[in-house]
Design goal:
single chain; alpha+beta; 6 strands
Length: 133
Amino acid sequence: MPPAERRGPRLLILPAADRCVGWTLRAANGRQLGAGVRTYRSEDELAEAVRELIIERAALRCTVGQSEGRLWVWTAHLPVRSTRPGAGEAVAVARSARGYLRRDQCQAAVEAFLTGLQWIGQELRRSGGRRPW
């Protein structure tokens, strides 16, 4: 099936302040599944961070909690890569794109995000490492 016919989640690159870029993951129906926490100086830097996120997705630790507005939100963290004692805590790499009224809705959004990452990873492999976004 040609890539143009595949329907699945898409990673979108978004312009940010100071000529930086960020990313968001959207479902095939356009619903936001999650967004990157930080911005990047270039699309190449962003692509490298996304590749690392896809490769390391099994190590992601997702936390669910309530925001100040009493909505449920999630954050995905990657562990710090260091053997030094006290090297720091896990690094936040993605977050929910919106707040949810119920905890179970938020947890389902985490699962949808992780499934979307898996899809993007499969597309990356199918494309031979070329950016599918």
